[in-house]
Amino acid sequence: MSGPSRREHGMVTAELAVAVPAVVLVLAMCLAAVRVAVDQVRCVDAARIAARAAARGDPVEQVTSLGRSAAPDGAEVQVHAAPLGVAVTVSVDAGGWAGLPTWTLRAVAVTPTETPP
Questions:
Q1: What is the pLDDT of residues 42-82, one digit of tens each?
Q2: Could you tell me which residues are beta bridge partners of residue 88?
Q3: Are 111 and 86 in contact (CB under 8 A)?
Q4: Which residues partner with 105 through β-bridges?
Q5: Is the dihedral of CA 103, 66, 86, 78 positive or negative?
Q6: In 3D, which of 103, 79, 101, 105 has the Cα closest to residue 92?
Q7: Around Cβ 44, how many Cβ atoms within 10 Å?
């Protein structure tokens, strides 16, 4: 058996030059998906925290401030009256990193209002 022919000497380099960018792209997309998932969970948590505060009767300014502190940066917090309760919506634009598309993450929490004894 003889070693690789002269024509095959650069094949590993050429294959690596094609494979590495593909692996980096897949890794970047996976990291972006994880970040979006974490931001969605933070939106859900922020909506629940703010809805509980609104149900207790806290002022709207305090409720929105509390929601923004728990939400991802740039999130918008809205407080709405709901039948027999209060609804809080937290939304934020996600994505847009390195040419990826941008989409809006949204979470809504509805809580019945507490009645004073």
A1: 999 999 999 999 999 899 999 999 999 999 999 999 999 88
A2: 79, 109
A3: yes
A4: 92
A5: negative
A6: 105
A7: 18
